[in-house]
Amino acid sequence: RLVSVLQDKRSNYDTDVFMPLFEVIQQLTGARPYTGNVGADDVDGIDMAYRVIADHVRTLTFAIADGGVPSNEGRGYVLRRILRRGARYARRKFNVELGSFFARLLDTVVEQMGDMFPEIQKNTDLIKEILCEEEDSFARTLDRGERLFEQTVAKMPEGTSVIPGASVWRLYDTYGFPVDLTRIMAEEAGLRVDEDEFNREQERSRELSRKKKGGASGPDNVVLDVHSIAHLNKQGVPRTNDEPKYAERTTEARVLAVFTGKDFVTEQAQSIATNPDDVPVFGVLLDRTNFYAEQGGQEYDTGSLVTLDMSSEFTVENVQVYGGFVLHTGFLKYGSLKVGDVVEAQYDVLRRLPIRSNHSATHVLNFALRKVLQTEEADQKGSLVAPDRLRFDFSYKNSIKPEEIRDIEAMCNKIIGENLRVYAREVSLSDARQINGLRAVFGEVYPDPVRVVSVGADIDEVLKSPQDARWANYSIEFCGGTHVSGTADMKVFVIIEETSIAKGIRRIVAVTGEEALKAQLVHRSLAAEVKALHAIQGAQLDAEIKRLTKELD
Fold first, then answer.
1. Contact at 8 Å (CB) between 325 and 229?
2. Residue 230, Cβ neighbours under 10 Å: how many?
3. Distance of CA 219 to the CA centre of its chain
4. Predicted confidence band of residue 171 (pLDDT cuts 50, 70, 90)
5. Within 13 Å of residue 141, how many CA atoms lie on the same side as its CB?
6. CA dihedral 436, 439, 443, 444 (to 10 degrees)
């Protein structure tokens, strides 16, 4: 508002805070220039679209840089609604092909605001990636949502002006199609939503979810044994193509097999909706998948498989690989699932993002250990990459001093602060083994070609002179896991535990991202409490020490 006064403008949107964004929007869309009309004067609604998109991309940029991720719950749902509202304006008013539109506006926001808010400069790649994934996903959602909305309206009795709330809930629950957009579409068509029925369906769905029994991690876990694998081979079922796990948040796939844990069946129709007290857990094999199956220390993805007509949804709770067959284990939320169905597979990005952050951190930690401890002895002996932490076991005969732990943590955070690009590609095993400084797990059998992950060094450049001494100054490893695109995506690295677990084997447990920030807050709080102890004495000091010791235990 102060800028509006200083620049003698009647609206915030007429100032140079927004005009550069308007100019880029015009360049990308070929639309008429922004004229500042509002209400009835904005006859074609173009000026409103300019304002919505510019305002929303600014909001999304800062929210994602601060750790927010679009999702179906809480603050994530607010971000999802913001992006999808803006995306619908972009397509309806500017006829934009959705997929990367908001990401192309990001550089302008960073150019305007990055000097004052450096966090958006550090996280540009991550923000673009999330915006593109979400926008691309919504493009498919919007296409289906509008088509299914039209089908729903077409099925309504003639003269009816109320859309069934159950249909509106299904659009949201299955595809995350915003209810407010459905209401807008209804209003545009001269209709309204049955809000009472919508609320009843929403509560019914929550109640069914609470009643859900079993679980892929419980006694009903479904696994493929040698006999099951032999059956699949005999039937000519191909191995799962899991290449999309590195790039695609959503992908279309065909159901090749449905496995109950004992038998292969052509169809499973028991769901939470039909069997709320005893829903069966079963496995699904697809021809291709973007889900990461648990391996190499990295935990599995979770998510959903939804038929293209939205009539059925399978909740994926666990993903394992057996002899090249990737088995998605979980339960049917509603509808039925049969061999031959085409589904949209979507993993839970809120689970995947911290996992890949922690996986990249294990590579950085592995590198820092060698540098700080000044030894090649520190070989990896095991690891765990989970959403909430990473665990790294390595060989080292001596105890690690507190100052060495401090230096290891500092080096990891230095690499994060440099925002080094993370490269990954397949390389022939013989060529990869020639790379100077390459790390691999001793005794592990690697495929040929093997996937190489490098933090900071372009693998194409590395392969031109693999023996160059420079490459020993980078983290380069064999790895089939998922990783961040740039080290700044990890935000911060904090070691929370270092201990000996066996003779000559030590373990470090650490956290990144949101969990690391929480750990830092706990540290500051504890440090403040310890400092406060210096100001008291006698019985009060004894009592406070006992209280603090109990809390730490």
1. yes
2. 12
3. 28
4. confident
5. 29
6. -110
Taking the C-alpha atoms of residue 85 and residue 471, their distance in angstroms, rounded to an integer, is: 46
Q: Please give the Cα distance from 157 to 210 (Å, whole number).
A: 35
Sequential DSSP letters for 7-30: TT-SSGGGSTTTHHHHHHHHHHH-
Helix (H, G, I), strand (E, B) or coil at 169: helix
Question: How many other C-beta atoms lie within 10 A of the C-beta of residue 9?
Answer: 17
42-100 confidence digits (pLDDT tens): 999 999 999 999 999 999 999 988 878 887 677 888 898 899 889 989 998 999 988 88
Strand partners, 254: 342
**442 contacts: CB under 8 Å, gap ≥ 6:** 379, 380
**96 vs 221: which has the higher pLDDT:** 96
Pull the structure tokens for residue 524. 């500051």
Packing angle of the helix pair 46-65, 19-29 (nearest 10 deg): 110
Three-state helix/strand/coil letters over 482-530: CCCCEHHHHCCEEEEEEEEEECCEEEEEEEEHHHHHHHHHHHHHHHHHH
DSSP, res 421: B
Are 203 and 226 within 8 A, CB to CB? no
Q: How many helices (H) and strands (E) does the chain have?
A: 17, 18
pLDDT band at 20 (very low <50, low <70, confident <90, very high): very high
Residue type present at position 523: H
* Beta-ladder partners of 426: 451
Helices 19-29, 101-113: inter-axial angle, 10-degree rounding: 150
